[in-house]
């Protein structure tokens, strides 16, 4: 067990070099944290534009200032596209996307291709940690076999762990350091090394018995949210039919000091985790002959929310003698949540596509997304328009999809002909404001 001790010692005394694979919303904050406490960090990403930006001391994520990147560069951080440089690191942390394919099945190709690219450059004592959200068994079934195909023995000369990311972009109350870190190892030795890897940078490390347990922890956390959001979205539809403001109901219910946690409805689920994680578990459960009916029902409710919002818009326009087709609609906020520039799985984009397909002229305003980004499955040749009274007045409808704090909602209210409010930003009932 000499390698266990020497690897753990390197991590404990911060002489280890940390390699981070994938420099996005998870990898970049993690890089900054390791750099902050004195580790040398090497970042590897397949996007040469990201690598160039980072090496110039620039940031491409709104809530991460360039000054922090520059500080990390001064401390020795370097970004590269060369996987061969992985051998310079002692720890390799994989933070790559795990989306769904067109059949709503897990796509772990980014994980497997990253691991395949790393195997030729592994060395004795390497610790490999997967942080990407995935189904239970991925670490054991996909990564372990690949590592051992290179002639290594996991738990003896290479240490394999799973530690799910828990980033919440734009949340001022929690950061990488203060969010507890769950760690599961393939073997007890792997877990020991994994705890050493993270306890230098995270206030609380939570060891669990296996990698499968750690993988399931991540799914439970986000399925818990998805199911409760599905419940409150269904409650919103019922309350709407009864003429009740669901946001007033939630606000009052949240005064109960026990037995109730407030969840809020919206136009659909966004972000990389909550819309995707339930499908990872339901897919894996089928392997065991199980059907996760409760989870799938919540997913069905949440998936249908954009269509319900559009139906509310159709009714509101009809009442004003205006057809949906040919209307001009301004979408207010297209990031998946407020106060970030993160577009992953944003329900705003699905709303824009539905409206475009129905003959609507769609534009948007989002101070965090000045130009519609290149996305794998969505395309709009649009830029964020200025939010002026004259501009707003030219639209038949304003669709409030993401409630960024910096938007002047009084201006929108005064200048709009019709507002479809999917976030409960406007309280009370007014003739030109429709809750959706």
Total count of helical runs of at least 4 residues? 15
From the coordinates shown, what is the CATH architecture of the largest domain? 3-Layer(aba) Sandwich
Major sheet attributes:
8 strands, mixed
Total beta-strand segments: 13
Averaging pLDDT over every residue, what do you get?
Answer: 94
Query: What fold name goes in the CATH topology slot of the largest domain?
Result: Rossmann fold
Shape: globular
Termini separation: 60 Å
Spans of at least 5 consecutive residues with low confidence: none
How are strands sequenced across the largest beta sheet? Answer: 3-2-1-4-5-6-7-8
Descriptive tags:
436 residues, alpha/beta, Rossmann fold, 2 domains, eight-stranded mixed beta sheet, five-stranded parallel beta sheet, 13 strands, 13% strand, globular
Description of the structure:
The protein has 436 residues and is of the alpha/beta class. The chain folds into two domains: 2-209, 3-Layer(aba) Sandwich (Rossmann fold), CATH 3.40.50; 230-435, 3-Layer(aba) Sandwich (Rossmann fold), CATH 3.40.50.720. It has helices spanning 2-12, 27-36, 48-55, 66-74, 109-118, 138-149, 188-199, 211-241, 246-253, 277-287, 293-303, 305-319, 347-357, 389-393, 409-415, and strands at residues 17-21, 40-44, 78-80, 91-94, 126-130, 158-162, 181-185, 205-208, 328-332, 361-365, 397-400, 419-421, 433-435. Strands 3-2-1-4-5-6-7-8 form an eight-stranded mixed β-sheet, sandwiched between helices. Strands 10-9-11-12-13 form a five-stranded parallel β-sheet, with helices on one face. Helix 1 (2-12) packs parallel to helix 7 and helix 5 packs parallel to helix 6. The radius of gyration is 23 Å and the shape is globular.
